[in-house]
Each structure stands twice: as structure tokens, then as C-alpha cells.
Amino acid sequence: MTELVVRDLVKRYGGLVAVNGVNFEFKGGEILGLIGPNGSGKSTVMKLIMGIERPTAGSVQLDGVEMANWPSHKVARQGVGIVFQHSRPLHRQTVLENIKLALLPDSLLKLFADPHVERRAREIAERVGLAHVMDRRPSTLPFADLRRMELAKAIARDPRVVLVDEPFAGLTPAEVATFSELIRGFRDDGRAVLLVDHNVKSVAAIVDRVFALYLGERIAEGTPDEVMRDETVRRVYLGGSIETAARPESTFKDADTPLLQVDKVGVLYGKAQALQGVDIHVHEGEFVSVVGLNGAGKTTLFNAISGLVPHSGAIRWRGEALAGRTPASIARGGIVQVPEGRELFPDMTVRENLDLGGNHLEAKDAAAQLAWLFDLFPILKSRQSQVARTLSGGEQQMLTIARALMMRPKLLILDEPTLGLAPVILEQLSKALEKLRQTTPITVLLGEQNVTFALPHADRVYVLEHARIVWQGPPDRFAAEAGTGYL
Amino acid sequence: MRNLFRSRVFWIALIGSIVALLLPLKVSGYILGLLTVAYYFGVFSMAWDLLFGFAGEVNFGPTFLIGLGAYAAGILNGYGVPVYPCIAAGAVMAVIGGVVLALPALRVRGPYFGLTTLVAVLIMMNLIVVFAGFTGGEIGLTVPDVLSVNADTNYYIALIFMIVSGVILYALSRSPVGLILQASGQDPVEAGALGFNVTKHKLTAFIISAFFSGLAGALLVFYMGTASVGTLVSIAVGVQVIIAAVLGGRRTIIGAALGSIFLIGAGEALRPFGELSTLIVSAIALLVILFVPSGLLGILTRGEEHA
């Protein structure tokens, strides 16, 4: 029987250890869920198996054949297939031709496809439910059909092992049901299936076993129920006992016209609904967290507020509509976003990055602001002349926030500041935020999937799921009312 | 096959070829001479489009391959080797040079491939000047033999060479191999995960491109009777090859030939404007590239579902 075995797998990128000694295996006729929060190394593990990245150490064996360090086309021919979350299909070819591509041999002499290729491609298209759109171009298909096409390409190679990256991202509940059926079909064919996703809940209904990763290491393994009950998993996803210090909403003075009012906002990316009918508001001086898993729509919401993506509905700032204003004008108005990717100037020093942020201030004000920031982030003071790229991830994140604060924002939007940071760094960052909240009248809108980080400072919490707000309330009620979705 | 006869590209190519075959009955030897050169440039551009439009690699140095073919053929001819073995040697030389360049260059990603090819042209230009004793240096290389002294014969050799090259390159681009090549160009990671050796396919595309570039370069030398850096190797020539392909419609092969003929034809038609003519042709090229990304062929086949 087919068995894929991963032993002592390690991947380092320079000083960063993305995967640190991971061991697991899965067999034909089994679905294993590989889960972990953002930055846990789960996607890296998948890429290492497929040969898209080369492991630093360790072994990947398929039925006893060592595949570590093989290029991906060799791994594919050994019997491993992958369903990418994002791919670039051939846009000038039809859906059927895209599937045919996957059926072609890796030969330079094939000037005419074998007749069975056409027949087989049609069979596969029918099996995944693409029969009615076979002759259309991929660009004319709805999102779910594009995902079906990716499934079709993966099964065309008849792989013994199928890796699926975030199988249900961006799909409606009905589509999720259909896709679950298709993936169970892989298992029933006797294939070994690995589903890579953020949390147990999204794959619980379909997997036989779950392997949970955090910061590149195994934290739990077992049935979905066992893993959801696991203490470490609960701590990683929900935090232990969280102390919250929420101020009730009624204490904010601008109850009638909140500082920021987002009203029935929707955003479409091509065919995918990234945001749908989202209502949120933020009072002056309030700390609001938007909690949601990767792909829930947090970044899209912030980009809509900052004027970076077109949207339906209305966004009002101090009661005035932001529609029609440029991102630069919105930023000058006091809404400053710290993007997920940090986007520092990597070859400039810490001081130069900060000076750029304070470029529009008078020299005297800039100096005062800088002194205040060095008080808030002491580490940056000692690193002033260091080049930004050589900072650690946590220091870079602090610098990004500090640079944004140099602009003296009225509303600071933080998008996933904890992405890829180690727990000890989280602590420092958390302290800085707490100090910020207590010593300044600043308004903060924080987007996070790390609940542990998002709740302690928050006055109010919104939960964003599949492009919609599904829950809102004070942080102390979160674990009881909305927490299970985060395991 | 059925699709072929329904495709507008096929009919455009067929009618264009018939018109071109009948042209010597009507037009002057001067125009035929211009078109002869245009046809060789058409092959340069088609070979370039195979790399850019299908393999997804921008070769900024098409003249490296052209120059290798041209100078190898020309220099050999100077030692008394007959014309046709020289042409074959030119093509072989371009392929060898292409492999030597592409093997390391394909290992680097993104813009670095293009930069490598650009540097190759600069090195070649220098070598030609340094070894002036063999190559004729800045003055140019004069070859003893020519393909033919008859303008009509030269015209037909160039035209038939372009048509045959076009048919082969077009068929290749539409074959399963062409499909794999496109996938490798668009998403190499996914192509690899589907079991295709991306480097192998791109290298093959480079070899085929080099073969046709070298062959056309060698033929052009024996048409003109000379080879020089300014006419065959300089960066400006390479830019013209690239612009012709993009202007005609990238990822179409046939469009590249169309673009070459248009560029040379327009340059000639606008000659009364003197210095301005280059400016006007450049402006037209810029407008097409900016506003009709699918190029001249795209304009001709607009609205057609199965192009």
C-alpha cells in the first residue's frame, strides 16, 4: 500500500527556521490534515514534499523511495500530485486543453497528442463537474470551477499521493460540500491525501487524522476531536486565560458619529467575493480588533478603508464619506495603515526609515515624536544606525509601527503584526501596544488571526469569517461565543 | 485540422503568402530587395516570439544568435567553403552558442536571464572588433559568394524560407510540446508539479530559436554579401527584432513576421519625411504596444473566439 513518510524534516531560510524536525506519515486510503496558524511552516512542509523547495535536512520517502532533494518534476512522476490554491491557468486555451496539458508526457517529440488524451480529459472534466464548461476559457469561469479545474489537473496524473493547499478557501458552503465529496473520492480511489489548512475546524469533517504544527514543530497529532481538545493547540489558537481590559462602548463620547463608520461594504476580486455587507465602527480613542483566519477578508477590509481597493457601500471618516478620495489624501487625513508585509525600506537604517515617516513634520515636532517613540520601543533607540533588513522579524515589526506613528495618525490600522513572530517577540510587541493604549489617545484598528494577541488590548472585537462579520462583542465573551471556530 | 480552416490566422497567412508569391510580377527590384531583408527579419522575430511568447523568457540579445550564424557562415566562406555548407555551419554555430549561453542563463530567474543575453551581445560586439583580422572589425566582413545575383531568386529564397520557418514554428507552438512550453512560461512551479522538466523544455525552445535565428542570419549574409556589427549585431538591430514581434502580436508567431514586414515597409513608405520617418514609425509602434497589446494580428483577428 502507498505510504508517504516524512522524517526529521528541517528547512532553514538563512537564520529563520521554518520547519524544525517534523515527522509524520500517511497512507493510501487516508486523509491527513496538516494544520497550523500563519507562519507555522505547514506550506513549507508541503513544498518540501513536492520538491518545490529543497529541505535543509531530513527525508521524504514514498514507498521506500527517497525523494528529498529531487526536483519537483521527478517527484511528480514518482506519483505525487498537488492542488495549488492559486495557479495561473493557460488563459488562451480552453478548460479541456488545460486538463489535456496535465495528461501529456514530458516529451519533446510529442507533436500530436495521443487520441486517448482527449477521451481521458473529457472523463476527468465530467468527474469533477466541469462537463458543461469544457470548451470555455478559464477566465470566463466562476471561482469554484477554476478550483475544480485544478483538481482535475491533479487527478489527470493519477497520483498515488495528493497534496491539497487550503481546499475550501473562498468557497461557499454548498461548494465546500461538493469539494469534500471530490476529495473523499481521492481517498476511496486508494490515494493518500494531505490537506493543508489553518485550523482543525475547516477540515474536521473530512480528515481521518490531524497533525498540528506551530513555529515549525509538531504540537499535536490525533483525531480532529483529540487535537481540538489538546491543551497546547488551545493555547496556540485561543490563548490561555486571557485578561481583558475592555472599556465599555458607552464611555466613548462620539456615540452618534463614530470616528470611523464602515457601512455595508463589499469588495469583489474578479469573481471571488472578498468582503460582503461588512458593518463596523470605531470610536475615537477606542481599540478595536478584527479577528479572522487567513483569507477571511481582514486585509481587504483595511485596504478598502485606506482607499486601496474599490468597494461598494460607504465608509465615513468623522461623518464624511471617503468615496472618491485618493489613498494619499486618506492617509493625510489621519488613517495610517501598517501593512501585513511590513514594507520597510530594507537598505535604509532604522533612523532613516523613521525620518521618512516624519518627513512632513516640523524638525522640532519630529524630534519630540522620535524621542517619544524611542521611549515606547527602547530597542529601536539602540539600533538607530542599523540597516533595516538586518533586524529580526519582531524588531522590523516594531520599526514599521514606529514609522507609522511618526506620521501622527488619528487612526492606526495594524494588519497582522504578529505574522511569523516567535512568542517571546509577541510579548514585547504586546507590551508596546499596551503602553500605546494607556499613554496616548490614539485609536487603533487591529486585524489578527492570533486571538491571544488580539483580545487583551481590545475594547471591542469583530469576527470576520468568509468575507462577513459573524460576531461582535466584548473580548471576554469571545472564547465562549465565537472561540470554537478558531481551533 | 478542422480548427485550422476556421481560424482567421490561417487565412491571413495563406492570402498573405499568395500575395507575396505574386509580387515580383508587379513591383520593382528595389521593393523586392527591401522585402527580402524584411522576410529574414521576420524569421528573427518569429524565433524570438517562440522564446518570449511561449517559453516566457525575454531574450534581449536575439542578435547574439543571429550574429553567430552570420559571422560563422561568412568567415568560413572566406576560407573557400561553399555557400550551403557555410549556412548549415552558421545554424549549428548559433545552436552551440545558444546552449552555452542558455545553460547558465536559464538557472537565473526573472530579469537576470534577459540581462545575461544582453551582456552576451555586448561581448560579441567587442570580440568582433578585437579580432578584426578574422571578422572585418568595424568595417565589416565581405563574403566572396552570394546566394544569387538575381533579385527575383533572392526574393523567393527569403520568402519560402520565411514561410517554411513560420509553418514549422507555428505548428510547434500549437502542438502538445508548445502547450507544455506555455505552461512552463506562465507558471513554472505548477508545470514542474505536473511532471514537466521546465528547464529541458525552455532549453529546447532556446535551441530551436537559435537554430532559426542562426540560419536566417547566415542566409542574410549571403544575400547582402557583407556582415557588419551595425546591420546584424548591434543592440539597435535586436530592439527592432523585439519591437516587430511585440507590434505584430506576441504569442502568435505569425504576428512577428507581420510586424517585421510592417516596420521595414513603413520605414520605407515614410522615407519622404526624412529624419522624421523613424520617429513616426516609433510612435506608431508605441501606440500599438500601449493600446493594442495583442498587436497587429490581434486587430485583424479581433472578435474571433478560436484564434
Describe what is shown at a glance.
The complex is a heterodimer of chains A (487) and B (307). Chain A is an alpha/beta fold. Chain A has 18 helices and 20 strands.
Task: Report what the structure shows.
The complex is a heterodimer of chains A (487) and B (307). The mean pLDDT of chain A is 87. Chain A has helices at residues 42-50, 72-78, 95-103, 115-127, 143-156, 173-188, 200-203, 224-229, 231-238, 298-305, 327-332, 350-357, 363-376, 378-382, 393-406, 423-439, 451-454, 478-482, and strands at 3-13, 16-27, 30-35, 57-62, 65-66, 80-83, 161-165, 192-197, 209-214, 217-222, 260-269, 272-282, 287-291, 312-317, 320-321, 335-338, 411-415, 443-448, 460-465, 468-473. Chain A has a six-stranded mixed beta sheet with strand order 6-7-8-3-9-10, with helices on both faces. In chain A, 34% of the residues lie in helices and 26% in strands. Chain A has 487 residues and is α/β, with parallel strands linked by helices. Chain A folds into two domains: 3-238, Rossmann fold (3-Layer(aba) Sandwich); 249-486, 3-Layer(aba) Sandwich (Rossmann fold), CATH 3.40.50.300. Chain A is globular. Chain A starts with a strand and ends in a 5-residue tail after the last helix. The relative contact order of chain A is 0.11. With 307 residues, chain B is an all-alpha fold. Chain B has one domain (2-300). Helix content of chain B is 77%, strand content 1%. Chain B contains 16 helices and two strands. Chain B has a two-stranded antiparallel ribbon. In chain B, helix 3 runs parallel beside helix 8 (151-174) and helix 3 (29-54) runs antiparallel to helix 14. Chain B is globular and about 55 Å long. The model of chain B has no long low-confidence stretch (mean pLDDT 90). The chains are: A alpha/beta (487), B mainly alpha (307). Chains A and B meet through helix 2 and helix 3 of A and helix 9, helix 10 and helix 11 of B.
